[in-house]
């Protein structure tokens, strides 16, 4: 299949997974058949956080969830190999996760066969489509901090570990090529004002209270929305289905987008945002003028609220590093690394600050994010093209291994006992591919 002949893909989107993989896949099969095609025709499934990749009972104690609500869920079967994901599944993290496991895969990787986590932040390709994601939720108290959390987590760590960090947002803001699909767990702040916000606030009065207090949604995600301008943005977290269309013009930055909100009715003007984030003007290459935003509910609500199957139409781009289909006649593409994102990751590698697992001390950064220039990314992109692209190494390897104990009824777990921190070979191999330090090694 030629890239120039590709005009759309079949995609399913789930809001919050909450560990209900069996229900998700079974319901998805029914929904696909109702639309007149088999599940095997679906290109991929997106889950917008609270995925809950719990491998065993120990992982439950690394979740920020009250004890009475903690449950093992279905993922352990997919991790152990007892079950197989029937469709490529792409996920971001939320605020109710086995954060210890996601932290092992900070740069992204396979949580289980056919289930790919985008990392704390990440960009991958499915054929000509670029998919960008940011994991966690925004909390201004921890936004500018490094990751000081290492196992065992204390009461504060178990919450702060899933908070979005400026480092990851700044990396995504270095992108200069178009992104078709973007994922986050919490909504971009103020995106509700581009949809039927009056109905939303009437149904969810506490949303209005949060909006009036300027605390509804993620301001960094708004900045990313204004910069990346993807064709589609999907989120979960708020446990409600909501859509909006954000229309922006050529050359507009996020502050320009926010000024468009002056057109809302007078009675809503008291909640107009006063942005505290610095706006960035996107480059001309990020030329989309409309983003379709869709948020979905959690599994367990009526199906139409938490699951949507749809055809996504994007304009394919025959630029560098576009991969080939998996096999003749399949119509499916392999998931691949993104050339520009690999270059950004290399350019920013020395700025990643996490705690040493033995001393729990965070070393000072040798590269401030503000010093990572477009020229630095261009230099690293040349290295990526020569060292990875031209050597045919862009396809994401199917290198999942189950290195943590799989679920067993015989596993004795003391209340609040936490697991060991496991070195993840996917992270080690990714760092080796990019020739950057593996700061997650033990």
UniProtKB/TrEMBL annotation:
Subcellular location per the Swiss-Prot or TrEMBL entry: Nucleus
A biological process term (GO) from this entry: mRNA splicing, via spliceosome
Cofactor: Mn(2+); Fe(2+); Zn(2+)
Pfam families: DBR1, Metallophos
Listed SMART domains: DBR1
Every Lariat debranching enzyme C-terminal domain range: 281-440
Main location per the UniProt record: nucleus
GO molecular function: metal ion binding; RNA lariat debranching enzyme activity
InterPro entries xref list: Calcineurin-like_PHP, DBR1_C, Dbr1_N, Metallo-depent_PP-like
Keywords: Hydrolase, Iron, Manganese, Metal-binding, mRNA processing, Nucleus, Zinc
Keyword Zinc: yes
GO cellular component terms attached to this protein's record: nucleus
PANTHER family (UniProt xref): LARIAT DEBRANCHING ENZYME (PTHR12849:SF0), RNA LARIAT DEBRANCHING ENZYME (PTHR12849)
Similarity comment: family membership: Belongs to the lariat debranching enzyme family.
Descriptive protein name: Lariat debranching enzyme, C-terminal domain-containing protein
